[in-house]
Amino acid sequence: MDVNTIYEIAAEEGFANVAVINTEDLEFVSAFRTLCEENDCGNYGKNYGCPPLCGTAEEMKDRVMKYRKAVVFQSRTKAADIMDPVLTKPIKKNHIRMTRHCIKRMEETGMAMDGFSIMCGPCDFCAVCAVLEGKPCAHEDMRSSCLSAYCINASALAEHCHMEMEWGGNIATFFSMYVFDKR
Question: Which of 52, 61, 101, 148 has its CA at a distance of 20 to 30 angstroms from the CA of residue 29?
Fold first, then answer.
């Protein structure tokens, strides 16, 4: 993958920051899985991209570590209250849309897209997840899971990538990734 083209496309798509890192630099914290189990988003067991359906913490880490590199995308958007999901949900959806569009554009430039995406929220590729109807995933190749499902430490990720991360205030900061370069 041409790193300069990645940076150009990400800037054009509106990302605040982008970085290409080695997957060995990711910090996995299996205790983060409890964030999913608390089910604040309401998707635990109701979305193929979410725990427990997406795999164990160890399986998710193993999936990432089959690849050498990751493109990290960051968006930073003003919001009146970043703790209010009514205000941040549309911002998160826009970040996911930007990520998908960026990946599609990278592919259109001829880059070998042999990896997968990790998003900032639950998989929303389908309007209604097939698991709710007792059916298999209709788009396994497009399904994504969030950083929490992978147990990736977003704070450590931000620090490693030299990106700001705020837990309060009025800036909603979201991260997503595209993992590539299979071992």
Answer: 101
